[in-house]
Amino acid sequence: MCEKHVPSGLVAPKESDEVKGEYVRQSKYLEQSVAAIRKKVDRDEAANRAESLRIMQHNMRLIQEISALRSEVQKLKARRQEVRLEKHRPGGDSKAASGGGGGTAGSGAPSAAALKAARARELLTQVNEAEAEEQKLTEAAKMLEQALILAKPVSAAGVAGTT
């Protein structure tokens, strides 16, 4: 069938110098484009790595601060519990509460019971503030964690790995 439809004297056309030149120009342009894209991908990867590192370090500092605050909250809760137990302990501070060990009635100095009550109120305030701060930091850490998950850089390994 080929012999029937294709003339026997058909010769493949020769490439002209113009076609060869166009091929060389396009090839060079594509090589330069690939090189420019690789540079851009490398720059973007470096920027993403630096940003991820910065966020991770900030997150680590927040986690350390949260841990410190949690231990402080535990200490304050333990102290609050001790204060509550001292208040309700039968005969524990009966002398101080009755004025036997404190200032005299007319001296104007606060009694030991009043000092302990003021200290207990102060400790309760500190515990409440620490718990509020812990809650804020926990929420901030969760938000950072979500932001890290959402902002994960898209890997350009497929583009950079082509040679």
Account of the 3D structure:
The protein has 163 residues and is mainly α. Helices cover 76% and strands 0% of the residues. Helix 2 runs antiparallel to helix 4. The longest helix has 72 residues. The C terminus is likely disordered.
Morphology call:
rod-shaped
Low-confidence stretches: 93-105, 156-163
Distance between the termini: 43 Å
The total of beta strands comes to 0
The description of the largest β-sheet is: none
Structural class: mainly alpha
Following the backbone from N to C, one meets helices and strands in this order, namely HHHHH
Q: In angstroms, what is the radius of gyration? A: 39 Å
Q: Could you estimate the helical fraction of the residues in percent?
A: over 70%
Average per-residue pLDDT, rounded, comes to 76
Query: Helical segment tally?
Result: 5
Quote the beta fraction: under 5%
How would the blueprint of this fold be written?
Elements: H1 2-5, H2 17-88, H3 94-98, H4 112-150, H5 157-160
Helix pairs in contact: 2-4
Describe the structure concisely for a colleague.
Helix content is 76%, strand content 0%. The protein has helices spanning 2-5, 17-88, 94-98, 112-150, 157-160.
